[in-house]
Input
Amino acid sequence: MYTKVLFDLDGTLIDTAPGIKRSMCEMLRIMGLPPINDEQQMALIGPPLKLGFSRILGLSGDTLDEAIRIYREIMPDIARGIVKPFDGIPKLLRALKNSGRFIGVITSKQQSTAREHLEDFALWTYIDYLRGALPDGSGEKTELLKAAATDIGFDASTVMIGDRFYDLDAAKAVGIASIGVKYGYAPEGEIDGCAPTYTVNTVEELTELLLYE
Output
C-alpha cells in the first residue's frame, strides 16, 4: 500500500486544459505573436512555462519573461468557471485522507496558483504538501521531486501519479514508483512508452488501485 501519494496537478487532479489553452491564445494576441494550433497548445500543458514557451513558442530573453508575466496575470480570470477537478477526484482525495495517507501535489505550475486552484475546488483541505514552480517560470519535475524528497523523505511506500512523461520520468529519476493516468493530456503512446509501475485509464481505476488492491 502506498502511504505517501504524490499527484501532478494539471491533467491529473484538475482539468485545466480549457483555461490554459484560452489563456495561451490570449497572451499571444496581446503580445502580437502568431497564433498556435491545438497540437501546440496541448504540448504547452505539462512542462514549466519557461521550458514550454522557449521550446514550443521559440521565445527568449525579455520576450520570454514578458510572456510568462502576461500569462500569469490573465490566466486566473480566464480560467475561472472553465477549470474543474476531474470527476471522482474530490472523493478519491477524501478517501485517501480518511485512510491516513500523506497526500502531496508536485506541479510545474507556480505554487501560489496551484494552491489557489486547490482552494477554489475545496481540495486544499486534503493536501499535506505542495511543491510548485519558481516565480521565474522554472519548475522541472525531477528537481521538484528531489526537493520534495528532502522535505518529506521518500521510501518504497511513495508513488508519483501523473499524466505526462515529465511526471513518470521524474519518478524513475528519484527512484520511486509511478502511476500513469491516461485520462489526462498525454498524446497517444506516451504513457506506455514511459513504462510506469502501473497504468490506469480512469479516476475509478486509480481509486481501485490506491484504495482496494
